[in-house]
Design a protein that fits this description.
By secondary structure, the protein is mainly alpha-helical. The protein has one domain. The chain is built from four helices and no strands. The longest helix is centred in the N-terminal third of the chain and has 27 residues. The chain is elongated and about 50 Å long. Keywords: Membrane, Transmembrane, Transmembrane helix. This is DUF2516 domain-containing protein.
């Protein structure tokens, strides 16, 4: 039982740190890069990642908090997997192969 509690704590704070990373990344990007990457605007992504970080921090992924925690994690992961690579590509100039 002791190990299971540590695993739950690690998952909880791992999600919160992932959300914080996504929020800070969204904060540091240029606003015009979002439209150039054909994604939603910077304020929208800051709201999504910031709100998700709050949910990931204050709700636990097990029990009743899962109904909020899981969508928040999905939103953060969408930013990290879809939006972030596009922003990086646009700001580097992209490649014309």
């Amino acid at each position: 039982m002791f190990v299971a509690n540590w695993i739950l704590i690690a998952i909880h704070w791992g999600g919160a740190l992932t959300g914080l990373f996504a929020f800070v990344h969204a904060l540091l990007q240029r606003a015009d890069a979002y439209s150039a990457a054909d994604r939603k605007t910077k304020p929208i992504w800051m709201l999504i990642t910031g709100g998700s970080t709050v949910v990931l921090t204050f709700f636990q992924f097990y029990g009743g908090g899962m109904i909020l925690w899981l969508p928040a994690l999905v939103a953060v992961l969408v930013y990290l997997v879809d939006v972030r690579p596009k922003l990086i590509e646009v700001q580097r100039g992209g490649r014309n192969w």
